[in-house]
Amino acid sequence: MTTHETPLSAVTPVSAVNPIKSQEAGRFAGKPYPLGATWDIRGTNFALFSKNATKVELLLFANNNYTQPNEIIPIDEKTNFVWHCYLRGIAPGQLYGYRVYGPYDPEKGLRFNPKKTLIDPYAKALSGKIQWNDALFGYRIGDPRVDMSFDERDSTPYIPKGVVVDTSFDWEGDRLLDIPWNETIIYELHVKGFTKSNKAVDPKIRGTYAGLASPPSINYLKSLGITAVELLPVHQAIDDRSLVEKGLTNYWGYNTIGFFAPDSRYSSVGDGGGQVREFKEMVKAFHKAGIEVILDVVYNHTGEGNHFGPTLSFRGIDNPSYYHLSPQRPRYYMDFTGTGNSLGITQPYVMQLLMDSLRYWILEMHVDGFRFDLAATLARKSNGVDRLSTFFDIVQQDPVVSQVKLIAEPWDLGHDGYQLGKFPPLWAEWNGKYRDLFRRFWKGDACLAAELAHRVSGSSDLFGENGRTPCASINYVVSHDGFTLDDLVSYNVKHNEPGRNGNGDGTDENLSWNSGIEGPTRDALVSALREQQKKNFLATLLLSQGVPMICAGDEHGRTQRGDNNPYSGDNENYWIDWNLDDKQLVLLDFTKKLIRVRKEHPVFRHKKYFGEVRPGIK
Q1: Of the candidates 391, 384, 334, which has an alpha carbon nearest to the alpha carbon of residue 357?
Q2: CA distances from 513 to 108, 154, 258, 519 (A)
Q3: Range 39-64 average pLDDT
Q4: What average pLDDT is seen over the chain?
Q5: pLDDT of 501 over the 80 cut
Q6: Given 7, 140, 438, 606, which residue has the most CB atoms within 10 angstroms?
Q7: Average pLDDT of span 426-430
Q8: 318 three-class SS
Q9: How buried is 232 (Cβ within 10 angstroms: 0-12 exposed, 13-18 middle, 19+ buried)?
Q10: What does the pLDDT average to over 443-461?
Q11: Cβ(138)–Cβ(153) below 8 Å
Q12: Which of 10-19, 175-184, 266-275, 530-539 shows the lowest mean pLDDT across its residues?
């Protein structure tokens, strides 16, 4: 293909970007920081990190042609492994991608393939979505050498493109709410699933950021009494090829490909960059209502999978610099997450990526905190989990990130991955022991009084000895990952989507009740007991010390019909059904009363443990 340069025009260097003028007028060396595409009114600075690349090209696309670039810009300047250039006249809405050259030697962990158009890891928005095609893979599918082979096909038509965005926004004085931990009540929800079936919301915005920020949604959450929404992943994610081929999607979104870009699937205004503004409007609306916004973030892996996965971004930009590779066989990936790869948190530019992303979502998008998926992976070195890892040290001293709510899912799937209670100060943790204990207790299993006392009083045995408080315990009985509360007390075994994995995924969670009584009397008794069990769980949750988390819809008995792993369940069976019957309205009213009681009586939300910490309660 013929290589084109930027349009030639006489310009004056822009001091704001400290340019070094190149041979072509209108194109300058630019700056190595900030990474990504940064617009400054006069033009755009592009910066991409790749330590091992030998050559980098910036691809520019016309808005009406995603399939081939209309300009290819060789990037000649490199500073500290960052390739950078500044292009005069490049404005918001410009679509772009990269080609990165270097060795293709999988046995050494090197997987450069300049035939593959790559997504900028720092893209603030993405346009288009993955169109699955064999050309997206760096190796030739079907070749007997598998990933040791090299694929010559151009992936450009099938890959999303980065979008240059205008980050300016009128926040109208908006600030982070900084609600104290002991006054926090978290409500975990899915952006699409919360409003997609809500007839009170304008049909044009159902299932979007705008729908979530609409008056019917905000008013419902305010009337419920929660203080924070925790959004399932909203970073740009991709649908796994295996799901797409079954007609499914990665509904939950735990398959990130862009750590700065709000997922365009939840945008009511398209994917040309307007999704950024729509997300900000949503946050501003929540803050005006006194509700914080917490993001569920997936920094432990990416959507590129294992060594058989596609080359979409990180793998083709600099595979060994971004991923945990096997020290003995760098052809293969260390997988602590069950997804095929793990980000190399110990690598300095990966650490920078994470911290830049966190600061961006706080400073530019005004989010109030983060829940870190499989957070034990963030502490991993090649030989295990390091409780004093660099990531946690950097967060501790960071003047921005250290000031927001930080929640760890304190485990992963690697060796010694269960790290509950071992995270540093500043961090709260999903308390899996709280969940498991009260499931056993309300099922009727024998439970130790000492453990019951610890869990209901804030789990001092887990968090009290390293300077933390009851607020380090995020108490929950149900989350997105498992049965809903109604299903938990209704099913003996899981009934997962047969088209997904033949009901072979997930684990059984049995809390249903059986008796020797038969017929209508039994049915009525079982129904009444199940309603009481839901009330028992909600009362325990909302009146325990620590921070309660409610999964969206559990306050009125939402069901997923026994599916306890609905990560691909993007249909009306999994979206919240707002047609509530009398029984559901009773449960909803009960939940609201419990939340009012918690708020009105400080005894249920202590900032400190009762008296001296006593790990040996008997």
Answers
A1: 391
A2: 56, 58, 44, 15
A3: 96
A4: 90
A5: no
A6: 438
A7: 96
A8: helix
A9: buried
A10: 91
A11: no
A12: 10-19
Cα-trace Rg, the chain: 25
* Per-residue pLDDT at 99: 98
Q: How confident is the model at residue 502 (pLDDT cuts 50, 70, 90)?
A: low
342 neighbors 333 (Cβ within 8 angstroms): yes
Q: 57, 77, 292, 373: which one is catalytic? A: 373
Pick the closest to residue 102 from 360, 381, 337, 316 (CA basis): 316
Distance CA 236, CA 123 (A): 10
Please report where in the chains the tokens 């735990």 appear, as a residue: 254
Tell me how far apart the alpha carbons of residues 411 and 427 are, in angstroms, rounded to a whole number: 14
Structure tokens at 256: 């990130």
Give pLDDT, residue 615: 47
Name the packing angle between helices 449-456 and 432-443 (round to 10°). Answer: 130
| Torsion 37-40-45-47 (CA) sign | negative
Q: What number of residues does the chain have?
A: 618
Q: Classify residue 165 by its DSSP letter.
A: -
CA gap 126, 65 in Å, rounded: 15
pLDDT tens for 343-385 read 998 899 999 999 999 999 999 999 999 999 999 888 876 555 6
CB 419 within 8 A of CB 410: yes
Told to judge if 409 belongs to the known catalytic residues of this protein, a careful annotator would answer yes
Residue 611 has pLDDT above 80, yes or no: no
pLDDT value at residue 467 = 86
Q: Which of 384, 453, 467, 463 is nearest to 430 (CA)?
A: 463
Domains of the chain, each with CATH number or no CATH: 15-163 (2.60.40.10), 433-443+451-609 (3.20.20.80)
The reply to whether omega before 34 is within 30° of 0 (cis) is yes
DSSP secondary structure of 168-206: ----TT-------GGG--EEEE-HHHHHTT-TTS-GGGT
Catalytic residue among 263, 409, 487, 555: 409
Mapping DSSP onto H, E and C, the string for 550-589 reads EECCHHHCCCCCCCCCCCCCCCCCCCCCCCCCHHHHHHHH
373 is catalytic: yes
What pLDDT sits at residue 66?
Answer: 86
Beta strands, E only, 219-374: 228-231, 235-237, 256-262, 292-297, 369-372
